[in-house]
Amino acid sequence: MKRDAPTRRHGPRPAPHPWTLGRRVALETLISDLSASLVDLPTDAAEEHIHHAFEEMLEFFHLDRVALWEFSQDRSEMVLLHCRRTPGTPPAPVRVDTEDYRWTTHQLLRGEPIFVHDGRNLPADAQAVKEAMAQQGIRSWLALPLRRDGVVFGALVFVAIRRQMRWLGKVISRLQTVADIFGSALARHRAEQALRQSEALKSSILSSMKSHVMVVDRAGVIIASNRESVKVCSLQPCAAHLTAGMNYLETLRRCAQQGDAAVQESVRGIESVLAGTCPVFEIEYAGRAAEQRSWFAMTVTPLTGAEGGAVIVHRDITARKHAESELRESEERFSRIADEAPVMMWTREPDGDVIHVNKFGLEMTGWRAEDFTLPKWMAAIHPDDLQKNFGTWAQAMDARQKYTLEYRYRHASGQYRWLLACGMPRYLADGSFAGYVGIGIDIQDQKEAEQARHELAGRLLRAQEDERARIARELHDDIAQRLALLTIRLRQLEQEAAQTADQERIAVLRRQSKQLSLDVSHLSHLLHSSYLENLGLAAAVENQCRETAELHHLEIDCKVRNLPRVLDHDVALGLFRVVQEALRNVIRHSHAAQIQVELFADGATLHLRITDDGVGFDSAAPGHAEGLGLVSMKERLRLVGGECTISSQPARGTRVEARVPLVQQHRHAPARADEDILEKAG
Amino acid sequence: MNRHHGARLLLADDHTLVAEACKGLLEPEFQVIGIVADGRALLRAALEHRPDAVVVDVGMPLLNGLDAGEQIKRHLPAVKVVYLTMEAAPELAAEAFRRGASGYVLKSAAAEELVTALRRVLRGESYLSPQLTKDTVNFLIRTRKPGLREKRITKRQREVLQLLAEGRSMKEVASVLDLKPGTVAFHKYRIMESLGVKTNAELLQYAIKQHMIPS
What we know:
The structure holds two protein chains of two kinds. By secondary structure, chain A is of the alpha+beta class. Chain A has 18 helices and 21 strands. In chain A, helix 13 packs across helix 17. The longest helix of chain A is centred in the last third of the chain and has 53 residues, at 444-496. Helix content of chain B is 51%, strand content 13%. Chain B contains ten helices and six strands, in the order E-H-E-H-E-H-E-H-E-H-E-H-H-H-H-H. Chain B has a six-stranded parallel beta sheet with strand order 2-1-3-4-5-6, with helices on both faces. In chain B, 53% of the residues are buried.
């Protein structure tokens, strides 16, 4: 770029006014006048002073327009700030795009003045300037950079239209001085404006704060305060106007002599913060108003800086204090109730190991309070129960759901005892999770009673089965055989009889005896199915279905599949009895035409399902299902660890479902006689 | 009179009175050459006397009727086996026929049916008491997989198992089968291993299901 060559060519052309000594003195006088009026540019009359200075310069140099421009923040345009012009002179544009005047902008930002005597000495890339000159009829112009801290932020531009100007180097350098005066005046003016705005903002923030904020100097004298008068309390002294200039610390010291502990402590706190020995001081104190207890918190933080001092903030914390004391009271009340309650109560923090247990809980378990931690408690749960329940438990806790579990734990005595444990997630008022709270009830006695009842029921059922089997065997092996024998003998007698009449009489007896033998056989079969023992569950169930179907003219679809080869006898018997009972119910009550019996093993469980299309009943109605032999079915299945459900709706048929685990975890006393039957080795 | 008049029969029933009565029932037409009270005696007598037919009760000590009948058919295929039993289970009848039986007669109906059954059987036909539905038994013979007939233990093991299940001591079993007690113990161990059973109770159940002993 050939930027220097044209601008620095100082041609010796005649000036309109000869640069006489008198004129030079006049210029210096003008400059010092301008300086005087601009150095202490009063904020509220800045515009007036600037315009006056412009007028002076227009007159002195016989110019047509003086304008002050400022670059925008991103330097994309120049904005017109002030402009004065002679009558008839076109106004300066309000803003110009620096992109259009790249050469001019570049010169100015480099801090170079631009002086144009006429359009001819402009470089080729200043086309836009030439056009603007032609358009406005400008003959000569001079642009001087405005600087603030060495950075160009605008320009002072002189324009001549009526005549051509020859810018002399000496004049330019003096005018640059004028530009510098403008620049610094303007910069100062701007800074003052910004400061005033920020002060206004700060004071509006301060006055809008709910807290009482004071700034004190090193001696405790108030420099600034956002309240003139505040709530009456011990630390915000009675009837005192906390205005700037008053010594707050001194006031407090006087108050402290009355013996108020909080005030005395506060004095010490403020002193130590002001002395720099304490980074921050905080105190909560009660207000003086007797009828409504109010609470405040005072915070004293040091001011950084050479002067020192501190910021003292008084906050009203009455609402928080009330909430806290209410919570404390309610927790104390709860804790009192919990301790007296005749049930174990406990709480656990979120993710905490410590379990807080009430007095009763400690007495009940015999445990010491310090031993109540989650790991120790889990270690005390019976391994079988832990394994069985752990999944449910962990799942509930992960999902923060409530749970109810029954398990055995080791009492301090070393004995396992049954416990019913309920846990519930606890949430604070703000919705945050606060761990678990729950109760524990010792159900050892109930469990023992239940166990005893089941054992009794089991023994009764087994005794009943044994007795039935004994009678059935007696009938089958003895009575039925003897009847068969009688029949055979009658047959022989019949053949030996001489008289036809005798033969007929004997034949009647023989037929009766045969029927009797068959009936006894059938009765034996009903009492105790030899099918089950001879042929297994599958055959016994199939046979039962077949016989029932034939006898009652029903359709029974019997599907047995996938049964294990060896089946526990009690399991087989239990399921067989359920089939018998269910089929009996169908015949008696349901008027079904079709029955489906399914028996299959699925993994470790045996499933039995008996479905009919009969009249059904409302299985939700209390007492109804119990009447249908459900109790005995349930008891039978419970003996082998299984369960049984009946579901039905009026006119929708009935479904009996039984499930029995194939692998027995725990069995009540097995028949020892059976166990030993093959152990008679001599 | 048919051509089997005078056919030679062996009767096997632990209810000896029933067996005696049956003899009276059959004598006019057939020749009863012996009555035995257990499966082993039946085997010995059958091998010795080579009868035309045997009438066997299903539940018998030492060796049950089903196993005894099966062994007779294996050694003497010409001998007809007729079961005479209190058991009216179609499955049991089906199992009997699968093992080579020719007749299955309920004891209650013996007076009327036994003679007829033997006549038919000796003619080469089969006989089933009408109290049992023929269709059902046929269906069972066809469909029931040989689940009841476990192949996994040997003949000798079956014999040992039945005797043990009857409550005999290892010494007694050894004496019946003419074995050393240690061999019996070995057989028992092998049986439990083959069947995959662990307790005596399971072993007993298996024996019951196999009709080795009555329930």
